[in-house]
Amino acid sequence: xxxxxxxxxxxxxxxxxxxxxxxxxxxxxxxxxxxxxxxxxxxxxxxxxxxxxxxxxxxxxxxxxxxxxxxxxxxxxxxxxxxxxxxxxxxxxxxxxxxxxxxxxxxxxxxxxxxxxxxxxxxxxxxxxxxxxxxxxxxxxxxxxxxxxxxxxxxxxxxxxxxxxxxxxxxxxxxxxxxxxxxxxxxxxxxxxxxxxxxxxxxxxxxxxxxxxxxxxxxxxxxxxxxxxxxxxxxxxxxxxxxxxxxxx
Length: 249
Ligand SMILES: CCCCCCCC(=O)SCCNC(=O)CCNC(=O)[C@H](O)C(C)(C)COP(=O)(O)OP(=O)(O)OC[C@H]1O[C@@H](n2cnc3c(N)ncnc32)[C@H](O)[C@@H]1OP(=O)(O)O
Fold this sequence. Notes:
GO terms for molecular function: hydrolase activity. The protein has 249 residues and is an alpha+beta fold. The chain is 25% helix and 27% strand. It starts with a helix and ends in a 6-residue tail after the last strand. 27% of the residues are buried. The structure holds octanoyl-coenzyme A. Residues 172-173, 176-177, 187-190, 216-218, 240, 242, 244-246 line the site of octanoyl-coenzyme A.
């Protein structure tokens, strides 16, 4: 019993230490989050996960362009310094896991809360480079988010080009991550996409998202997919996110 309580306590601590939990919460989101977490934690078993793979770190499939851009943004990120004050930073890399809840900070195993075979959609293909290779950085003032995206061969739509649904997936992923930095328990309510120019399969592109406005429970974000030098506009989109009342069950 004592051990179980200790694990529940650690679970709460882990959830509260997630980057998203440190952001400003909409009051209704805050209440919902506490209710959902506590309800789920009290009914389900915990295990400890020794290691989580962060899929947003470089791997052997990354091309030169992807690596170069990663280095560029990563060099402007917060540096963890032991015993000294943290340096100022312009961007923050957003870690990415294939079972987000399993890999809450502290390694508490939480994904049993949901289905054991469930995987985060964009991170469920084992072969590196085959599908969605990407890394996201969020700006210090949280007004902008940038994603470096390398589209793998499994994402083909028209011959030699990326499928429109895969592009929509990435736009949703980037904008929802951005919106999640601002508030919690959000759902995509509307995604409006204009495809301007096809994206060659295997190429690397930049996905930039900017906060348009927040209005009550609503977050509006606009997004552009461009070539890495910014000269070609591939896709434009706007996204609306709403803090969900339904997520609490
Ligand atoms: C990084 C890991 C995250 C991965 C997840 C990626 C994101 C996703 O793909 S989410 C999955 C896809 N989305 C969904 O399934 C959402 C399904 N829809 C819903 O759950 C609900 O309709 C939801 C939550 C969007 C809104 O429901 P509800 O909380 O009842 O909102 P409701 O009270 O009707 O409306 C709130 C406001 O939003 C507006 N609104 C709601 N839906 C829309 C819409 N589709 N278009 C425009 N405005 C809308 C309303 O007009 C209202 O505005 P106002 O306050 O100004 O009057």
